[in-house]
Structure formats: C-alpha cells, structure tokens
Amino acid sequence: METIAEQNGIFPKLNVEEEPELSATEVESMCMNCQENGITRLLLTQIPFYKEVVIMSFSCDNCGYENNEIQPGGEIAPKGIEIRTTIACARDLNRRVVKSDYSSIRIEELDFEIPAQSQKGEVTTVEGIIDRVVRGLDQDQPVRRIQHPEAAEQIDNFIVNLQGLKELDKPFMLTISDISGNSFVENPNAPQKDPATTISYFQRTKEQNHLLGIFTHDEVADEPSKSDEASSKREADSGEANRLLKPIQEGSWPLEELQGEVLQFQTQCPECAAACDTNMKVTTVPHFKEVVIMATVCDNCGLRTNEVKPGGGIEEQGVKIEVTVRGKVDFARDVLKSESCSLMIRELECEVGAGALGGRFTTIEGLLTAMREQLVESTGMFMDSNDVETKERMDKFFGQLDTAIAGNKQLTIVMDDPTGNSYVQSLNDDGTPDTALRIIRYHRSYDQNEELGLNDMKTENYGEEDIDKTEQGDC
C-alpha cells in the first residue's frame, strides 16, 4: 500500500487491470465473537463514479466469524440524500446498495425502520439488507421464547412478513435517508433513467451537522478571556498581513481590474491530496451573464479540472434548453452547464443527473465526451462480469454515442436547470435562438424551490421578526 500510495495517491482507483499490484493491508485485531485474535484487512480505494472509500473485512480462523463494512474516505457531501426505490421484481432485489453508518432504512409497507448508526456501513444488495435484519431479529429468539414468549411470537410473525417481501407478491418501497449523502442504490437500467427510483437532496439541520462533526467557526470559537484581550489586540495588526482572506478596501480594486485579473489560491488535489494551485477568473459570457471560471492543475499526478460557477444569484425562472446537434457547426457551440442542471439525450433515452458532470464551461462536443467518460467509469462500479444483458446494452449505447460524437447521428440534447444559470451559444449574431436552439423558461415547482432552499429564504425585512419577538418579550 505504501508503494501504491506514493505513485497514485492515498486512494488508488478500483481497476484491477491497471493496478494489478493493488493489495490490502492486514492488521491483527481481536474477534468480538470469541475474544481471540483475527485478521482485519483494509483496502483504501476509489470507486469509479462514486468516491473514496475504506473497505474493511474481518475474519477469525478460531471461530469462523466474518464481518465486512465500508467507510467513506472522502469528504462529506454538501447535502443529505434520500433514495426511494420501488422493489417489484427479482432483479430489484439484486440491486447493489452502498450504505453509510448514518443511513436510516425504512420499509413503508411494514412500517419498519432501521435507525441511523445502528448498523455499520456496507456494500450489499436489497435482499442482503432484508437478510441482515432477519438474522439480527432471530439471533436471540431461543432465549426470548423462554423468557418472553409473547414478544418472541410477535418477532417470529414479523420475520415471516420480512421473508415474505422476497416473494414479491406485491411491490414494496425501500427508503434510504442519509444525512452524510454517502449512500447509493444501483440503477439496473443505466444509462437510461431509473423509473423505480426517486432521489432527492436536503439541507442538513444544525443538529445533523454536529452529529457529523461539522461546526461553523462561530460555534467552535472560544470566548477570549480578559487576560488575552490585550495580547490579541497587539497581535491584530501584525497578524493582518498573514491573514488568508483580507477585506478589500473600498476603491482599492475596481470591478474592471477584478475581471481582468487571474486570481490564484492553494488547494488540495482531489485525486492525490497533494498541494496544488487553483486559478480563478471572473468573465462575462456574451448575451448571458458574469461567471466565475476555476481551473486546477496538479503537478504531482497531472490532474486537470475546470469548474464554472454563475456570478449572479438564482434566476426568477428555471430554464430548459433544447439544442439539435446536426454536425460540426453545432459541436462548436459554447455551453455553460451549472451544477444544478440535468442533461438528457432524447434519441438515446439517456439522462444524467444534476450533480454528475458538475458545473463546466465547454462545447457541445466536450459535454458529450465528458458524459461518455463518466458513463464508462460508472459501468465498472458494480456491473457483474457475468451480466451479459447489461454488458450488451451498454456496448450498444456506447456505439450509438460514439457514432453521434463522430457526427454521423443527429441528437437532441435537453438541458434542464431550475436555477436558470445554464446557457447554450446561439449561432445568430444578436444572441436570439437560431433554428436548432429552443429556450423555454418556466416557473419552479414548490419541490424545486425546497431543494434549492428558496422556500425558507427571506430577502426583505428579515430583521422585523426578531424585533417583534424582542418587543413581545419586553412586554
């Protein structure tokens, strides 16, 4: 692991062909079943199209006890995730599931819920989740039947109901809610949209952030003692020069200079965690708005990434952009895709979620190429080598996509951005949509505003409520 970490970073990619020397680290540890010593194997790796993980497997030669779990090794996601999947056939029972320690699982039909942090994170299947619950409930049943026969009978009946779910006499709903955002359910219809699964993201509460160990600067800042106030005041002036973020004095840096300047700051490489530089520039897209372009280059591993953030706020209306790709002229169109924009190719029945490709400023050809690269990586995530049907379907899809990228197949690309911060270049000089470009503006739904955090946002007279509460308290 040390040799691999030096070459490819702490978390090598999970690719046996490229990394044949990839091996696990073995650590001797105590067995929780027989109290003898067993072996824990640790593998730090990166699952394609997912994130860095730590895979742990324990085995005891003395009693035969085995255990395995998975822990996220990367950053906690910005938002929590809720995945609702309808299980209706045997294929759905075989869906791969990645669950973290903070995942709560609920089966609506049985009114049954596995609380968060009651089980360790693991890579399993829907059927594996049910079997693990059955094993847990049946573990102490012999003793329970003697001491508490009534409770044991109720549990036996519930186990029968759980086992009956696998018979699939009727569909049932499986809901996974994870405040860390590190859970995943396989889409067996990839690259097409999964009609049986609904994914939604939510903002964590203050208590949930604390549970994950996330605190704001104000929450962790200690109250300065009176004895330290004098020394802090003396060090304020000397420390001003060493501060990372300094306030810009009024008039010292006009907006014109900011737009013409390339700013640079240090960051960590997302691949190898080495120190590298990120360049940032504010620019204006003609006939659109101001945007912030960020590019990162890592000298250690050679990684190059670029990201685009809209310079303004969320627009009053969402936007849906349809562009017909007919040939080389359309391939050269500039495209600004925000992080909240989903992408669909109508002829291939392929849909990519909002967060998959991130925010980027590219061309139609660059967007299709990036989409293909991520889909190629994602097919190796959980696809079984013996799954001939899935392999044939993906090969057929990639063949059609390659034909389109080569310019031999007409495509219709639909970009849907509820924030209204996405853009496709028009071939008309005045910026109005040309014959192959269609732009539709729409009012966001309540659920879309809820996901963007707009329903609870108050931009006017936001201090009046606090004043009213204070006055009522005084009365």
Q: What is the structure about, briefly put?
A:
The protein has 14 helices and 24 strands. The chain is α+β, with helices and mostly antiparallel strands.
Care to describe what's here?
The N and C termini lie far apart (68 Å). The longest helix has 19 residues, at 364-382. The radius of gyration is 27 Å and the shape is globular. The chain is of the alpha+beta class and 475 residues long. The model is unreliable at 1-8, 16-20, 223-227 and 234-246 (pLDDT under 50). It is built from 14 helices and 24 strands. 21% of the residues are buried. Helices cover 29% and strands 29% of the residues. Strands 8-7-10-5-12 form a 5-stranded antiparallel beta sheet. Strands 20-19-22-17-24 form a 5-stranded antiparallel beta sheet.
CA radius of gyration is: 27 Å
Count of extended strands: 24
Please state the oligomeric state of the protein chains shown.
single chain
Instruction: Report the sheet with the most strands, covering strand number, pairing sense and barrel closure.
Output: 5 strands, antiparallel
Q: What structural class do the secondary elements suggest?
A: alpha+beta
Strand percentage lies at 25-35%
Q: Strand order, main sheet: write it out.
A: 8-7-10-5-12
- Coarse morphology: globular
Helical proportion?
25-40%
User: What's the total helix number?
Assistant: 14
Q: List unreliable stretches of 5+ residues.
A: 1-8, 16-20, 223-227, 234-246
Overall pLDDT confidence:
77
- Distance between the terminal alpha carbons, to the nearest Å? 68 Å
